Amino acid sequence: MVDAYKGVLILAEQNEGELHPISYELLNVGRTIADKLGTELWAVLLSPNRCAAEELIYRGASKVFFYQSPSFGHPDEIVYKENLVTLVNEEKPEVLLIGGTNFGRSLAPRLQAALHTGLTADCTGFDVNEDGKLIQIRPACSGTLLAQIVNARYPQMATVRYKEFDEAPRDPGREGTIVQKQADVPNFTGVKTLGKLKSKEVDITEAEVVVSGGRGLKDSTDFALLKELADLLGGVVGSSRPLVDEGWIDRSHQVGYSGNRVKPKLYIACGISGAPNHLAGMKESAVVVAINTDPSAPIFKVADYGIVGDLYEVVPELIDQIKEGQG
Ligand code: FAD
């Protein structure tokens, strides 16, 4: 029964035919796992266009199962689930990897339940044990330890933390097979896209500069001060969770374990203590600047530059100096 399962399958995520970077990250980690297992790396793509399928081959997939329909432009978990259940039952991959994006996190448990298998969420590492089973590694207990999890059932399913792995390198000379599959497109799944909200700001997960505020802020309106600094640096505003819970700022700005994982070139933490659940979302930033009145705040342990001081004095000073520099 177990021998019937072969191959590592990754779900390529797309929107309006454009691949999400997580797809390339999954191909990178999928390649490592496939090589350790001595098996093939496959991708599945539901998309309105075929060029994304070719791109997956350039990034390392030896086979792409391709479902084409104009309705796949806006991903719908129910449609994905129906098509993926059929594919998995036909092809029997031993490993199935899905991105730890908002969409992937919503899809994966639906698929897991339909396939009657296990699911490890938000993995940050993988290995293969002597029985050829996938070891799925993820932080546990607020990131104080790394759990190693092995699924009892097949396919061994995991979501992979976004931005944890590099993207697979692109080689346009690489060859592979695109297997056109018959798409199952139900007339109505209960989800109707009425329109697309125009985001006023850059997606925080893609931003190169993030200026975040924590409980050191005295009022919700004080985010305007951080926004001024972020605007000057071409960045966006982030937040620790308590301020989001208070309703001071939208959840899309939350940085941390239960929020967004960011990896900007510059992260400025203003009035944030540096709790493990916050660090989990920003500690991979290239340069961290921390502004905090408490010299013993844990954020200083991960900061490249620490400023012990009142953010209401330091941030306006930074703004003035940047403006002066821009002259
Ligand atoms: P505090 O810990 O209260 O720190 C405020 C800091 O501001 C202090 O260090 C203080 O010295 C400093 N300060 C005060 N006044 C000033 C001033 N005028 N100028 C400069 N500094 C000043 N948290 C997240 O952020 N993101 C998450 O995704 C997240 N997920 C969680 C998931 C779970 C399951 C749980 C249990 C918790 C989660 N948390 C998360 C909460 C987390 O554990 C912390 O409670 C939270 O990060 C603390 O936020 P803070 O640093 O803003 O506040």
Low-confidence stretches: none
Question: Which oligomeric form is depicted?
Answer: single chain
Q: Roughly how many Å is the radius of gyration?
A: 22 Å
Strand coverage percent: 25-35%
What is the general shape? elongated
Helix fraction bin:
25-40%
Number of discrete helical segments: 9
Strand tally = 17
Give helix and strand order, one letter per element, not per position: EEEHEHEHEHEEEEEEEHEHEHEHEH
Structural class based on helices, strands and sheet pairing: alpha/beta
Q: Measure the end-to-end span.
A: 70 Å
| Average pLDDT level | 93
**Biggest sheet layout:** 7 strands, parallel
Q: Please list the strands of the largest sheet in the order they lie side by side.
A: 7-11-6-1-4-5-12
Q: Which compounds are bound in this model?
A: flavin-adenine dinucleotide
Would you kindly provide a written description of the structure presented here, covering whatever features stand out?
There is one protein chain. With 327 residues, the protein is of the alpha/beta class. Helix content is 28%, strand content 25%. It contains nine helices and 17 strands. The protein has helices at 21-37, 51-58, 77-91, 102-115, 223-232, 241-245, 276-279, 299-302, 311-326; strands spanning 8-12, 14-15, 18-19, 41-47, 63-68, 95-99, 119-123, 125-128, 134-140, 145-149, 156-160, 177-181, 209-213, 236-239, 266-270, 287-292, 305-308. A seven-stranded parallel β-sheet has the order 7-11-6-1-4-5-12, sandwiched between helices. Helix 5 links the parallel strand 13 and strand 14. The chain is elongated, with a radius of gyration of 22 Å. The protein starts with 7 loop residues before the first strand and ends with a helix. The mean pLDDT is 93.
